[in-house]
Design goal:
334 residues, Immunoglobulin-like, Aminopeptidase, 2 domains, nine-stranded mixed β-sheet, binds zinc ion
Amino acid sequence: MKIINNYEGSSIDVISIKDNIANLSLRKEAGQYEHYYNFKVINDSTKTAFIYLENIEKTPYFRNEVQRPYINKAGVWQLIDNKHFTYENGKIMITIEPQKEIEISLYPRYTVSDLDKYLSTLPKNKNLKIENINNTGFKKIIIGDMNLPLVVVIGRQHPAEVYSSYFIEAMINSLLENKEPLSKYCFVFYPIVNVLGVNNGNHRYTNNIDYNRIWNRSGLVFEIDYIKNDIMSSNLAYFIDVHGDEVSKINYVRTNYKLNYSSIGSMQVLKDPSKFRRLSRALIKQRKLINLKDKTAREYISDLKKCRSILVELSLKDTIESAYDNGSKLVKSL
Ligand SMILES: [Zn+2]
């Protein structure tokens, strides 16, 4: 049996492999066990393989119940079934039938290559421009007339929050199908902000940095400096930051302005929390203290540009389909 963990978006540590039994552990980042994991198993033997995955309860996002991982079957992600998955004493056990090769992932894997693959399927369109900034894999997608007020959309500041990528794909698709919003706004997407983290299979941090807590600082993250510079002199109408939420069972948005809807698609519209609420939320959700001087993307940009801002939080317990649906509905609500 072989465990493969050296490709884009993979993340697992191998403790031991003996015969048909493999002991694996979540990786660590910023001193904690990552929540996300992804690896491939090649069971080339004639016996069933047993994969044990340790330290599941030690991630900051573990709650009472374990989340079942996805497996990739011929390019389609689906939740693993109960026949091949059990959870006991803090360990996941996955069985792999003989002569089977399988990719296992806490959330569907979506890397820069997947974004490129998606972008390559888009029809040639005079409204659409795709830039590969400094050939770093950091992509900027412009849809519409740059003379109009901008709607800037960013995603994947936190690498494992993959549903934001499907959400952004749906936003792009819906703009290419229905051009009406393009008469009011020009849309600029940065679908994957944390290029390094996404390719490394990180969960939240890259080089111990939480990208969404350093927007008031410069010189730390190339992509963030680039976006800040790019937005500086623009006429910015909306700034939209798309995330995934590991713990919440509902999809929701937060806005810094009054919205007339109580929901968009299956996303509930919630008020921005006070600083105190944010502090206690971080303590509960991520089990850490945050420094309130550190600014999130939305705080930094909306203070600077006095624009409307939207935080999208997609429940990572929900489905890809739901993320798509909510992405196109958000476009329609602007
Ligand atoms: Zn996030």
